[in-house]
Amino acid sequence: MQLILLSGGSGKRLWPLSNDARSKQFLPLLKSPAGGMESMIQRVVRQIRDSSLDVELTFATNAVQRDSIINQLGDGLGIVTEPQRRDTFPAIALACSYLSMEKHCSDDEVVVVMPCDVFTEDGYFSTIGRMAQAVSEDLADIVLMGISPDCPSEKFGYIVPECEGEVMRVLRFTEKPSLDKATMLIGQGALWNGGVFSFRLGYLRKLVDRYVQAESFSELRGRYGEFPKISFDYEVVEKAESVAVVRYEGVWKDLGTWNALCEELPGTHIGNVLMGDHNEGTSAINELGMPLFCEGLKDIVVAASPDGIMVCSKERSEYIKDYVGSMQHRPMYEERRWGSYRVLDSTDYDDGSMMLTKSLKIRDGKCISYQLHRHRNEVWTVVDGKGEFVLDGERRSVSRGDVLNIPAGHLHAVRAYGADLSIIEVQVGCPLVEEDIERFEWEW
Amino acid sequence: MQLILLSGGSGKRLWPLSNDARSKQFLPLLKSPAGGMESMIQRVVRQIRDSSLDVELTFATNAVQRDSIINQLGDGLGIVTEPQRRDTFPAIALACSYLSMEKHCSDDEVVVVMPCDVFTEDGYFSTIGRMAQAVSEDLADIVLMGISPDCPSEKFGYIVPECEGEVMRVLRFTEKPSLDKATMLIGQGALWNGGVFSFRLGYLRKLVDRYVQAESFSELRGRYGEFPKISFDYEVVEKAESVAVVRYEGVWKDLGTWNALCEELPGTHIGNVLMGDHNEGTSAINELGMPLFCEGLKDIVVAASPDGIMVCSKERSEYIKDYVGSMQHRPMYEERRWGSYRVLDSTDYDDGSMMLTKSLKIRDGKCISYQLHRHRNEVWTVVDGKGEFVLDGERRSVSRGDVLNIPAGHLHAVRAYGADLSIIEVQVGCPLVEEDIERFEWEW
């Protein structure tokens, strides 16, 4: 059985902790059973591995999230990145084509597609097992997960089943109904659409062939733009002749707003926070080095990261995405496959040039690719760790205190070796533009 | 007439904007009549200059505040710095000795001593004029300012005058009475002690002579430790035979708590702040580069600086000094006579060494003294401006993009020349200890 985890999202609703480079599923804010902290994506993968499901995992994601997935979950997972943002049908079509053309899975194999950012309990994964079982017994072409509704809500899609049972045929769908209609639907036994889909690989392959017939996966990926921008629900589920649904009744939460997330935090605060003696219902998360002090607050959430600081009543925290657009600039913190960086300071000068100071952490054994910048000089001061540095083909060892001058136009690479490497980088030159960089190969 | 402004204070109650290096009187948070912002000390000096007082100003302060006074008020003011922190009697004794021995003021000259951190209106300065007039008419040895009380308060000292009049003889003093006693005192016509003192220079000189008889001001300053640690009120005012008081009835506020300060801020926020549409009675000040977003808040004050972030109900903001001690570390921002610096990043390593990254701004024409560090290397990257750099006696011009390696033990200095100079400094080595630095002279 193949499990495709959809990992996307723009990261506006959990600003300033999430940003375009770090969606909510990567925030390490949940308590792990091992005692430390884990992100939503780490939690869901742990839950899958702890379940009785015998599955192979593939992530359907975008290029920006690829490095975060590897950093948080290690190498060796299947990761399919969409070349451009389209919608869920193209993303799932691409991942299924990867299973078929790259992993050579058979058309009979059962595929389950699920989101990676819902907070659930173990029963969720046994429900997935029953869904896959239903597909393998040919009870329907598509089997969905239906969530038992807590309350009438205008936010979800509703699935109306024909009659009660473990695997129920679906009569019809209703997208985001009015509150009155939702109440009526729930009275008729309708379930929320959980966004989990199960089908045989061959079933989807035929739908893919309608849009793109390719000889290889790389050809298909190159022609990704030929897929229509449409959701999997509209393109596949609503057009299918035989759709069934399996009910899930346990915890099912979208931790996509501060209000919802705060309920699952392991305590009142995370990071360098001092809570005074007169706070109530207040949560604080501080990813900055400087201290955060909270006192006399009631039902407030405070979050601070290199991207910004948010102080918001829990009640209003659902609406912050309306404001975030006017504050977002370049991400000030990013995880990369080689480690992470943080912007310490930046200035744009009147004459069009700029200064950018970063702190880089390169993980032991990892390297930054061999590259040159045409329009900026860089000065690297090694402040901790050990590694190897290459400038125009000349290799040298580096350690704490070494200063590396990298003038514009010169090829350079660095590798941490024997310890994590910490570097303070000062860039002076023209603003960062995509064409400023050229990448080459270097054999370590 | 000589006016001595007392500038001290530890800066705990307005954390994180104030710190040991930046007391509340230097925070540029008040609206100036010219349209910009001004600090309390800039406000009080502007008020003095706009008043009809014909005075010469001298600041009695400590070494840490000296550079801030010059930066905010320019050169050319008298500044007397106490060699160590003692109390108000020694500080005023030192400043008076400076007037006598360095400025050669006569014993007949009238001196007024006042705090620099009260928020008042113009009538305050005409009251000072009347106090000085009373001294010059020999109505008393010491003339005080009495503030008309708003309400009974346990926080102040009370002055009980003999009878009503413009210049009233003082019957007795009561320090911080109970609320009941305060009510009774006010019923008897008592006034709050405003901490403004007026006397002839010769009167104080005699008191100084009791403790230290010196030939020169520098000798006296060197023997500062021989003065007792005692307040001016206890040592001078309460022992004086003839004390009078002049009443001031206008605005008189200590903007020493966030609650009080917020009332005088020019709007709801200062700095890079986005206020949402549902805040009430809330103030936000952000000195960081990153954005601060506030929404759904009621009667809250938010303040962010390189030293930390505070989110506090206005009601509880009086008590933050009880918590600040556990958060304070080295100041992350400081004004110096040559400009200012901000700490961008710092790490202490397990082996006892450290890394510190700073952004320096050196003002045009100013220089950092010729010095060496025994135990740390520094790398300076010039990111903006122009200047001259000296390393072991070798002088060179520097401008944007230049990298200056300063190994431990090497003498260096820099001067901004033709423009303000911005430098990113990375220190690697042993922790900053006072003995690590040696300063020398360099003739530019």
Features:
homodimer; six-stranded antiparallel β-sheet; 444 residues; alpha+beta; globular; 3 domains; five-stranded mixed β-barrel; Spore Coat Polysaccharide Biosynthesis Protein SpsA, Chain A; Jelly Rolls
Q: What's a concise summary of this model?
A:
With 444 residues, chain A is of the alpha+beta class.
Describe this structure in words.
Two copies of one chain form a homodimer. With 444 residues, chain A is of the alpha+beta class. The first copy, chain A, has three domains: 2-254, Spore Coat Polysaccharide Biosynthesis Protein SpsA, Chain A, CATH 3.90.550; 261-324, no CATH class; 338-440, Jelly Rolls, CATH 2.60.120. In chain A, the strands form seven sheets. A six-stranded antiparallel beta sheet of chain A has the order 20-21-22-29-24-27. In chain A, strands 8-11-9-10-12 form a five-stranded mixed β-barrel. The model of chain A has no long low-confidence stretch (mean pLDDT 93). Chain A has helices at residues 40-50, 63-73, 88-101, 123-136, 179-187, 201-211, 217-222, 232-237, 258-264, 321-324, and strands at residues 2-6, 30-31, 37-38, 56-62, 78-82, 110-115, 118-120, 142-147, 157-161, 167-175, 191-200, 243-248, 252-254, 269-271, 273-275, 283-286, 292-295, 300-305, 308-313, 333-336, 339-348, 354-362, 367-373, 376-384, 386-391, 394-399, 403-406, 412-416, 421-429, 437-440. Chains A and B meet through strand 17, strand 18, strand 19, strand 21 and strand 22 of A and strand 17, strand 18, strand 19, strand 21 and strand 22 of B. Strand 17 (292-295) of chain A pairs parallel with strand 19 of chain B, so a sheet runs across the interface.
